[in-house]
Each structure stands twice: as C-alpha cells, then as structure tokens.
Write a structure and sequence with these properties.
Blueprint (H helix, E strand, L loop, with lengths): L2 E4 L10 H6 L5 E6 L25 H16 L6 E4 L3 H10 L4 E3 L13 H14 L4 E5 L1 H8 L6
Parallel strand pairs: 1-2, 2-5, 3-4, 3-5
Helix pairs in contact: 2-3, 4-5
C-alpha cells in the first residue's frame, strides 16, 4: 500500500529533514503544485494543449522549478515516473524539475472551474497511484492536492 508524502516547498532549503526522510519510506510519493504562475484559475477559453489560452509559468516560476529539481537531486531523490496534469504550467514544471520521465495524467487535471468532478478525479488519482510502480511524483494543482491530502499549498 502506498502512502503520500507531501512536501510543501517554496525552496528545497525550507523543507524539514523529516520531509526528505519521508520520501525514502517504501511506497511514499511526492506531490507538488506547479511552480509560480501569476493569477488565479484560467481564462474561460482554456484549451488543453494550447498554452496561449492558459495561465503559464513566468520566469520566476521556471527558476523556481529548476531550483526545486536541483534540491531533490542534491539529496539523491529522483523518480521512476513523474505524472503531470495536462495544463501547460504543470507540464512545464515537471519538465524543468528534471527528476524523471514525465507522463500526463488526466485524473490530476485541475477541477477548479468544475468541482463536480472532484470526487471522481480524486478516486481515479488514488487508483493511478496504487497502480504505478516505483518512485512516483505528481505535479498538479492546489485543488487536487487539497482533495487528496486535506491540506492546501501555494505555488
């Protein structure tokens, strides 16, 4: 049975030692909200696969993702699979972390604009976690993290 180790990181240096130790536990996974993307939500015209219709990382967000990835690698933490939502800001964060092969996963797409899918997506995410072998990281959205863990986080 897998359990979730949630790291609430602004920068890797702010994490407590036991946060990093939790990742070495069998079955632990890491969940991260996308890096800094100014604003809230997305335009009504959001189209999956068209970054021009979405809220995206800015240069600070890109630097933040690289720094977080560096922090993981400095501690010897990489992942067999990094799952990302299909939003451009999560995919770019996952790619810039450079912690393992990135695959998009529909269940961790944001449901910020339609909370009616919350329970179904959360159940599908838990199934996906249970079915995925090896060291796993999710790069997703605040609403998804809150649904999975009962806790909130910032970019």
């Amino acid at each position: 049975m897998r359990w979730i180790a949630v790291l609430f990181l602004l920068l890797p240096s702010l994490a407590q030692a036991n946060d990093w130790d939790a990742l070495s536990e069998p079955g632990a996974i890491a969940i991260m909200r996308h890096a800094l993307a100014l604003g809230t939500g997305d335009p009504a015209s959001l189209t999956i696969g068209d970054c021009s219709t979405q809220r995206n990382l800015d240069e600070r967000g890109r630097a933040q993702a690289r720094t977080i990835g560096d922090g993981f690698r400095e501690r010897g933490s990489t992942f067999d699979t990094v799952l990302s939502s299909q939003w451009c800001r999560t995919r770019e964060t996952a790619d810039l972390l450079d912690l393992g092969p990135v695959m998009e996963a529909l269940p961790i797409n944001s449901f910020f604009r339609d909370f009616s899918t919350r329970d179904q997506q959360t159940a599908e995410t838990l199934e996906l976690i249970a079915e995925t072998d090896g060291r796993l990281m999710l790069v997703t959205h605040q609403v998804n993290i809150s649904a999975l863990t009962g806790k909130s986080t910032r970019s």
